Amino acid sequence: MIQVSRDDDNRPHTLSPSRPPALIFLLTTERRLTAHPNRSLTSPGLINTILFYFLHMEFYRSRGVPFCLEELMAQTKRKKSDYIIQSVDHALDVLEGFHGEEDELGITELSRRLKLHKNNIFRILATLESRGYVEQNQSTDNYRLGLRSLELGQNYIRHTGLLRVARPVMEELSRKVNENVYIGILKEKYAFYLDVVESSHTVRVLSRVGCRVPTYCAAIGKAQLAYESMENIMNVLGRKELKKFTRNTISNRDRMLEHLMLVKEMGYAVDDEEWDEGVRCVGAPIMDYTRKVVGALSISAPSVRMTLDKIKKDYVPLIKDASAQISTDLGYKALDDGNAE
């Protein structure tokens, strides 16, 4: 342990791995200026401390002790995860527990799923109910999402610039094909439907806005996943066989990788009844000024109207043109053929 010159209050500062030079320098400077606010930084005591600080820089660095202020701050800076409030985290877990197919959930089921005590679940639900984020069915005593949750989702949609740009294009495309036109984004392993312009047909696909689907079995998901890095694609697909939802779902990972390469080559993706039987979709990616995929556009219709021949002949040119228009409006500029990636 090395002693540094004493401070004005006759307290010595010592150097050790637990009190590195950068910290000693800060403490010394702070004490001197606090005790003597009119004292200049060029006073002899401070000059000696600064000289000692720099003379011993290499000695401490060679032993892994943080010397400069940047090194010290880098080691003492806390991660954001250190600031998580557990009760808030649990409340969000409860809200996210309603994302499944069930319209309502009881305290016992939520407790089982989230591995939280029933008393904790009850208090969280009571708080969320008082603010309108959940509501209780008085007939069953189960809970469902409240109107406040819907309002927050709508606020997110309104505040997304992508949707403001895309909406007029979606409306025009829907007028041309008279089928549901969706826009969606990727989030982790899922594709999320953000907005829709619905068909005027009596028989049409039920709106998926607010729903999430596995990325690999939806056109709106595959059209984006194909442009991700191989590392991200493998994180989404995992190491095991993919879950089948219909007889047409591609469940073999190697086949899916080949399929995604073809999607990227063609510039569009088709969902041939891979998520819902009786429903086909075709989607194309949307890019912004950074040339990154930020979403995808898709057309969805009953398979009796949307045949594979009709997709290739009529819908593919329309969906690619529409997604290209949105991309251009977001600042995307295609590379010249000679500079293509």
Mean pLDDT: 79
Order of helices and strands: EEHHHHHHHEEHHEEEHHHEEEH
What CATH architecture label of the largest domain applies? 2-Layer Sandwich
Beta fraction: 15-25%
Low-confidence stretches: 1-10, 12-19, 337-341
The tally of strands reads 10
**Gyration radius, in Å:** 30 Å
The first-level CATH class of the largest domain is given as: Alpha Beta
CATH superfamily membership of the largest domain, which one? GAF domain
End-to-end gap = 58 Å
Number of alpha- plus pi-helical segments: 13
Classify the fold: give the CATH topology of the largest domain: Beta-Lactamase
Strand order of the largest sheet: 7-6-5-10-9-8
Could you characterize what this model shows?
The chain is built from 13 helices and ten strands. The chain folds into three domains: 75 residues, no CATH class; 68 residues, Orthogonal Bundle (Arc Repressor Mutant, subunit A), CATH 1.10.10; 180 residues, 2-Layer Sandwich (Beta-Lactamase). α1 packs antiparallel against α2, α5 packs across α7 and α9 runs antiparallel to α13. It is of the alpha+beta class and 341 residues long. It has a six-stranded antiparallel sheet with strand order 7-6-5-10-9-8, with helices on both faces. A two-stranded antiparallel sheet has the order 1-2. The chain has a two-stranded antiparallel sheet with strand order 3-4. It is globular and about 60 Å long. A hairpin with a 6-residue loop joins β3 and β4. The two termini are 58 Å apart.
